[in-house]
Amino acid sequence: MPETKRKKASKKELIIQKASAMMRERGFPATSMRDLADVVGIEAASLYNHIQSKSEILQEIIYRTANDCNVHLNSLDETKLSSIQKLESLIRFHVQMMLDRFNDYTVMINEWSHLSDPYLTNFITQRRHYVQKMELIIQQGVDKKELKPVLPYVTMLTILSSVRGLEFWHRSAKKIDPQTIEDNMVSLLINGLKN
Amino acid sequence: MPETKRKKASKKELIIQKASAMMRERGFPATSMRDLADVVGIEAASLYNHIQSKSEILQEIIYRTANDCNVHLNSLDETKLSSIQKLESLIRFHVQMMLDRFNDYTVMINEWSHLSDPYLTNFITQRRHYVQKMELIIQQGVDKKELKPVLPYVTMLTILSSVRGLEFWHRSAKKIDPQTIEDNMVSLLINGLKN
DNA sequence: CCTACCGATCGGTAGG
DNA sequence: CCTACCGATCGGTAGG
User: Fold this and answer.
1) Fewest CB atoms within 10 Å of the CB: A130, B27, B124, B127?
2) Rg for chain A, CA atoms, rounded
3) Which residues have C-beta within 8 Å of that of residue A97, sequence separation ≥ 6?
């Protein structure tokens, strides 16, 4: 029955969305299924008609988000952008993920260690590949003299960490608009890299 | 009896040190007093002869670490360093905190939200003052044309976040030595700021 | 510093 | 989707 299935799917989405907000705020271990059920508006036991376990929720949030990051990074391969343009695209993409999908993105970078195997191991592998591809882009920029002779590893860390820092901005009441934040971060990081 | 007191104090230190390592790894909520007691080598109930509560351990770790940061920042007021030199000193101090006192520093920046009031409110206030002083240093550098016309808020976030990113480096098996990491981060950030 | 134990809460299941 | 409930584990205390 499509109707039933659609309703179920959307209820599952609601659960995951509320869980994402709660896990971002309190962290995975401090998020109880009873509190989650409360904000969804059902009893704790009823959650299990839509999801299999608390762990499954975390897996869904993290794997979807990680997948979107991978898709973006891979799409850069098929472009003819310069290294510096690729880096700018990466920075803008991550800033937008942090701002537009705040809960999911923050849960991914803060709570991944609470995944259980084999999902934990798989995530770590995915992330290793991701940062290696980023480092390769930076290395190519250095080789072509587009970038200063920076260490790709340190540069990659600095870029991803700076975006992560926007979590702090997001929580605060600062009245700087998102586009200004994005542009400033791009120029600060890119200026430190340009040759 | 000084002897007894000294012994007790050192046992308390041992408990806090082991707790710091465990809370860094798993987070505060996922750190159980029974697991902590195991690595200390006593029964869970015996922990309470040395500490008052699980919360007290978190408070001790965070307040000591925050205090050291405040002391360093305040010491800059009494120097005649330029804005850029002050920023470099700040970056080096935080990198060293992250590398030398990895557990404590990481617990502070990742687990502070699990403090309970009034410690939580007090910590947030302290942190707000800290970042405001940092922003003032950056603003002064902009005013004196030592720095590019960056936004102090975004710049402060970028610096602190970049240091936080070293947590990732610390966990990895990268064979870059600490001094190289520190120097690279200083040059990457300072080069992006210099006028 | 231990044994013994408390009430509360956890993730999850049975059965309807 | 609910009521009723499970065993496990939590932070912490009493008493010695």
Assistant:
1) B124
2) 19
3) A65, A68, A69, A105
Backbone angles phi, psi at B71, to 5 degrees: -60, -45
Q: Is the peptide bond before B118 cis (omega within 30 degrees of 0)?
A: yes
Quote the pTM value: 0.91
For chain A, give the longest Cα–Cα distance: 61
Contact A22, A36 (CB under 8 A): yes
A18 touches A36 (CB < 8 A): yes
- Amino acid letter at B85? Q
Residues spanned by CATH 1.10.10.60 within chain A?
1-51
Residue pairs spanning A and B at CB distance below 8 A: 98
Which residue is listed with tokens 């376990």?
A53
Is B126 in contact with A160 (CB distance < 8 Å)? no
Write the Ramachandran bin of B145: left for phi over 0, alpha for psi from -120 to 50, otherwise beta.
Answer: left
Q: How far apart, in Å, do the first and last CA atoms of chain A sit?
A: 61
Q: Which CATH architecture has domain B61-193?
A: Orthogonal Bundle (1.10)
Calculate the alpha carbon distances from B103 to B19, B35, B160, B161, B183 in Å. Answer: 9, 17, 17, 17, 22
Instruction: Pinpoint the residues of chain B covered by CATH 1.10.357.10.
Output: 61-193
The total of other beta-carbon atoms located within 10 Å of residue B110's CB is 17
What integer pLDDT is reported at residue A141 of this predicted model? Answer: 95
Q: Please give the torsion angle defined by the CA atoms of residues A80, A124, A92 and A190, in that order, rounded to the nearest 10 degrees.
A: -80
Task: Report the alpha-carbon distance of residue A16 to residue A27 in Å, rounded.
Answer: 14
List residues of chain B with CB under 8 Å from any CB of chain A: 26-27, 29-30, 110, 113-114, 148, 150-151, 153-155, 157-158, 160-166, 168-169, 174, 176, 180-181, 184-185, 188-189, 191-193
On the question of a cis peptide bond just before residue A152, with omega within 30 degrees of 0, the verdict is no
Contact B147, B141 (CB under 8 A): yes
User: Residues A15, A50: contact at Cβ < 8 Å?
Assistant: yes
pLDDT tens digits for range A72-130: 999 999 999 999 999 999 999 999 999 999 999 999 999 999 999 999 999 999 999 99
